[in-house]
Amino acid sequence: MTKTSVSASISVKDAEIAKIVLMPGDPLRAKHVAERYLETPVCFNTVRNMLGYTGTYKGKKISVMGSGMGIPSMGLYATELYTQFDVDAIIRIGSAGGLVDEVHMRDVVIAMAASSNSSYGDAFGLPGHLTPVANYGMLANAVESAQQLGVHAKVGPVYTSDHFYYPTTEVNDKARELGHLAVEMETAGLYWTAAACHKKALSILTISDHIYTGEALSAEDRQESFHEMMEVALETAWRCVE
Ligand SMILES: O=P(O)(O)O[C@H]1O[C@H](CO)[C@@H](O)[C@H]1O
Ligand SMILES: O=c1cc[nH]c(=O)[nH]1
């Protein structure tokens, strides 16, 4: 019998979504993670080509699905996964631009918190500012996983921008001056959504370019080569799943 469950943007037929989902922005990075690391991966979503897969990793069920680019897309998919598919935790696995001098190309960054120029979090109604923060237990598991894998991950705040192409350099300059390790486009949206849904989230990033040195990786590298980040995320997910 065909079992189907559907939300506005996800349609799952004869498959299921695990309690924990890894989410790269790029759906082809999701496909790569599924094919490289999951046993018996099953594709559970193709709506809008936002590919999602469920398989097992060291005997535990884990899903991986694209989030698309930017806070609105991440917020939409994370909300549906948390509220309509009973997902407990999401780990973003993204690329990011290095901001500070201590961060280098291909470094793995674990986002403790995310400042942002987005007003997305205002909708949740807290007077002042709802701070987008990682789940501490997941963060601690990620740090331990990185240490065990010999990955020198850097932990700190990142900056989530609504703009990939900002017309001036001042936002990145200020974010760098205030100690943000990297700039990207989804982490604050994920952390706000997790808070609003009473769920868990963590963002792990790989430096794909450096805003102040001008170094940059190719699109193909961004899709397929971030294996340290993928392995830290999978080990973290494995520790977080019962
Ligand atoms: O590599 P992903 O996860 O897509 O993340 C980064 O890459 C995209 C921009 O190229 C934005 O989504 C940004 O956050
Ligand atoms: O959002 C992003 C992602 C990678 N590199 C950047 O400069 N910005």
From TrEMBL:
It comes from Pusillibacter faecalis. Residues 19-237 form the Nucleoside phosphorylase domain. GO terms for biological process: purine nucleoside metabolic process; uridine catabolic process. Catalyzes the reversible phosphorolytic breakdown of the N-glycosidic bond in the beta-(deoxy)ribonucleoside molecules, with the formation of the corresponding free purine bases and pentose-1-phosphate. Belongs to the PNP/UDP phosphorylase family. The record marks R222 as: Important for catalytic activity. Homohexamer; trimer of homodimers. One of its GO terms (cellular component) is cytosol. One of its GO terms (molecular function) is uridine phosphorylase activity. The keyword Transferase applies. Keywords: Glycosyltransferase, Plasmid, Transferase. This is Purine nucleoside phosphorylase DeoD-type. The gene is deoD. It catalyses: a purine 2'-deoxy-D-ribonucleoside + phosphate = a purine nucleobase + 2-deoxy-alpha-D-ribose 1-phosphate; uridine + phosphate = alpha-D-ribose 1-phosphate + uracil; a purine D-ribonucleoside + phosphate = a purine nucleobase + alpha-D-ribose 1-phosphate. It holds the Pfam family PNP_UDP_1. InterPro entries: DeoD-type, Nucleoside_phosphorylase_CS, Nucleoside_phosphorylase_d, Nucleoside_phosphorylase_sf. Its EC number is 2.4.2.1.
